[in-house]
Amino acid sequence: MASEEELFANIDALLEEEPQLPPPAERARLREAAGITQARLAQALKSTVQTVKNYENGRSEPKSPRLEAYQRLLKAWAAKYPAHGAPALPAPPAAPQPAMVPNTFAGPATPEPARTAAPAQAPAAPVSSARPAGQTASSSSRRPAAKKAAAPPTDPRFPHGPLAVLDGDGSAYATGGIVLDCPATTVPDLVEWTLKESGLGAAKLNRYGKDSDPLIVLTATAAVKLGLPERLEGHEQRRSLRLSEDHPVVRQVAKAKWQLTQRGFGPWARIYRKAQGRERQCVQLAILSWDALDERSWPGVAEMESADIARLLGVYAQRVITPRGSTAVSGLELMTAMRPPTKAVQDPSTGNWVSGYNPGSLGTEPMDPAPPEATPEHPVVVNSGWTGGFLNEEAYQWVRSVDTLSDEECTLPWAVGLDLNTAFLAAAARLVVGLSAPDHFHAPTFNPKIPGSWLADLSHIDLDPRLPSPFTPDGSRPTGPAWYQTHTLAYAQELGHDVHPIEAYLRRETGAYLDPWHDRLKNAYVDTLADLGVTRDLTDAEFLAAMEHHKQRDPALAAVLAAIKATVKGGVGKLRERPQGKHYKQGETWPALSRPTWRPDIRAAVISKARVNMHRKLNNMAKLTGLYPLAVLSDCVVYPSPGTSPLDFLPYAASGKPQPGGFRLGPTPGLAKLEGVQSMLWAVDLMEKGLNPARHIKGGDAVLDEGE
Length: 708
Prior knowledge:
It is built from 20 helices and 20 strands. By secondary structure, the protein is α+β, with helices and mostly antiparallel strands. The chain has a 7-stranded mixed β-sheet with strand order 3-2-1-4-7-6-5. Strands 10-18-19-11-20 form a 5-stranded antiparallel β-sheet. It starts with a helix and ends in a 10-residue tail after the last helix.
């Protein structure tokens, strides 16, 4: 006979097993007896109607912590509505609520009426990578952190938001704390589930645009479960790697009559079928373990829990766009989403509605640049034999000559770096660019309102050597005729110099193409900073204090902020994407040239305006304070200072308000923030070696990446 210890051990083993649910048919009976619809139950469980149906027909079972919540509800119903007319037992007393309830079951035991969804424009609350109480690091079911997520979408077609992060246990973490059960075991199954059952997607950003395709982010365990390798290995950069065409998953996709884009099956894979009528059939995949979210643009995200990744990507999708690739790709996609190339127009001859050009956009066809706007390897240059020089509108990389330092400057103890918030985004505001092909003119009269490229000689202009020249990226004085973008020549006029172009390539049709792109990204940047405690109503001292700790306040939202900044720089850089691959030969075309958004002239206009804006502030600062910079790198300038704070040298009026024209502190794009402090001796030592102090203060962040 078994001993008491053996019996108790067996009972303890039973108690440690997962809670058991009644049979599927009984679950449905209890719900119907309570008069609760599947939709209301799905809302209470933070799930979907299809998932509830699966519970009630035996296709799937809930996972913790939804399992415990569902069991609690069914037990209460079973006591109230017993089978076969048996008398109802008194309901057990309600268990005390824990201090923190996991967001996967944020509702009460009995469903409550649906709440009105918040507007999509409402600011998102901070995101956190912290786990709810009671969850350990080894828990197989990752739960959302108990903080409020981004405002839920209002479009009824996409009730679960724009994206989900899929774990290996089949849990798909969507925005708003919703966790979906995904039964897919192959990539084609995942695509079908995403389009038919997930309720994922996002509404178009412009009335003439297209809805955003749903995004599924795969963790390493999910990728392996679907038959994908955990890592992509090879000699190239991981983001450039692709699965081979004979890989079993690629064959599965083809066998199921799905297609891959020309990019193949890489870290960002698009799987689609041709649209049926107005219904798009396309799903975007991102594989985390293949470095889809690279550390430069999404710092720390790869190490976060799935629920937190879903929440922060949801904030980015709500405020910017559902990611389509790297932040550079997303920046370019946002331009097209905000200014769609076509719209429906009525054919006067037939009365039918057809696709037509959308005024203010770049259209559907790529456009050849003027020879000086192109790159040396471009077919326009190689095939024409062009030798007339090129536009060189790049960001500042300037170091002041040590010989120009005064004794007073050398006695100042500190070198303080100021960084302009998203300077290139600020330059895109109200920026008029060309929309038509360039026309060639000889000896034209300069007009600062016409965008284009002008050949002019500015070498006669003599400027203060303590400031960089506004006409060259390295700050040196021009040595002869060179090509300049309109804003550069207009600034020469602003400084009081005559401008007489020798020739020009100008565009007759113009427009503020980037305005809606700028507005959306500016709002995203300012709103995300505000969520991190950096608001517009702070004093300068409060602003500096808030900026010092904003990344520690919420690392996940800080990652969103970094991604927004990378979207700006990457999007501008993509306007002149260079050829990639060691097998490329000069004169050949490359994939980026097939895009209407391959527009090096627009990139040059943004950078020219940003550099001119920087020089204008440098010039005004010299007039207001007598201070001259030590170095400038892109949007960062280093000044000698008597103290460690910008408040020690920035110009303020007697009233305490910042003087207009110089650098001002604040969270708005174009305003400045403290970037770093070093000793003046350290800065002078770097300058003597020909190195840029701003590069070391900023960590080298100066390039508008053209190759992502």
